[in-house]
Write a structure and sequence with these properties.
Length: about 180
Amino acid sequence: MEQARSAVRWLALGLLILGSLGMMISMFLGVADVVGTKFFDYPVPGTLEFTESTMVLVVFGALAFTQTRRGHIRVEIFYNMGGPRTRSMMEVYTQLVGIVFFGLLAWTGWQEALYSWNLGEATMGTIRFPLYPARFMLAFGVSLLVVQLLVDLIADLGRAARGEAPPVHKVVPDPSSDSRPV
C-alpha cells in the first residue's frame, strides 16, 4: 500500500511541476504577446492556442497532488462536530463520490483523447497545435486522482474500523505553535 501511495505521490508531483512549467511559459508568452502587440504591432503567434492547452495541464495536473495532501476544500461545520470514526466515515463517503464522479470523467477523457489522437485534431489558429496531448493529460491527471482516492479510501476504511480520525494536513502552519528553529 505504501508503494502505491509513494508512486502516486511522485507521479502527482511530476504532473504538478509540469503544470507549473507550463504556467510559467504561458505567462512569459502572454507578456511577450501584450508587449509585442502594444509596442511593435506584432503579436506572438500561437499564444492563445498554447495557453489553452496548458491550462488543462495546470488544472488537472494539480488535482492528484492536492489530494495527496488532502488539501481539497471541505465544509468543516459538520465535519468538526463528529468524532474520529465519524470523520473517517465522512472521508470514505466523500472519496466514494469522488471515485464515481472522477472515474466517469477519466473514462470519458480517455475516450476523447483516443478519438482526438485518431482524428489528428488540432486548433484552428495561426499555428496549428495538436489537441490530443492536452486531452491525454486531462485523462491521465484525473485517472491519477482516482487512484489516489482509492488509496485514501482503503486507508480511511481501516481508520474508521479502528475508530481513528483521518490525517489533517495544514496548508498554512499554525501561528500559535512555536516551530521556529532554536
